[in-house]
Amino acid sequence: MLNVCEFISIYNGRTGIGNTPENKGQCVGLVSMWEANLGLDHIWGNAKDLFDNASKKQWTKTKNAPSKYPVSGDILVFNKNAGGGAGHTGLVIGSNSQLDSVTIFEQNNPGNVPGVACEVNTYKGDSWKLITGWLHPIKSLDECKEKYNVLSEILKNIKALLANI
User: Fold this and answer.
1) Number of domains the chain contains
2) Is 145 contained in some domain?
3) Among 5, 70, 78, 164, which one is most buried in terms of CB atoms within 10 A?
């Protein structure tokens, strides 16, 4: 499993990212790749629908409000007033309460323009009015990494046993 920086290093500047024919090259395509990276289920729908459609078993949902800020690894969800009515979404890199800003990794911004690459952008000021909220993975990245390491060790032991048969 990749952390946010590793994920960005793979996809930054690339186009056509996604894991279904419908989401390749769309903002939700990049976010779907992040969900897959975390081992979480695909959240279906347009970007504006992700907040409502996300499983409460896998995501903590935080509605946008003054003095609340997302953290690295969260999925930011913009409402229908962004992205030509479909909304917009991206992976949170970080936020800054002093600057009242959030920095995300996103694809297809401005929306619906073919070939717009994945890139990092910062939103502040009036942009907050477009944000519905954000999704935070319930299982922490450390928990995922720990389980991955345990499973990897088990697989190594199985392979070693099979090699001796």
Assistant:
1) 1
2) no
3) 78
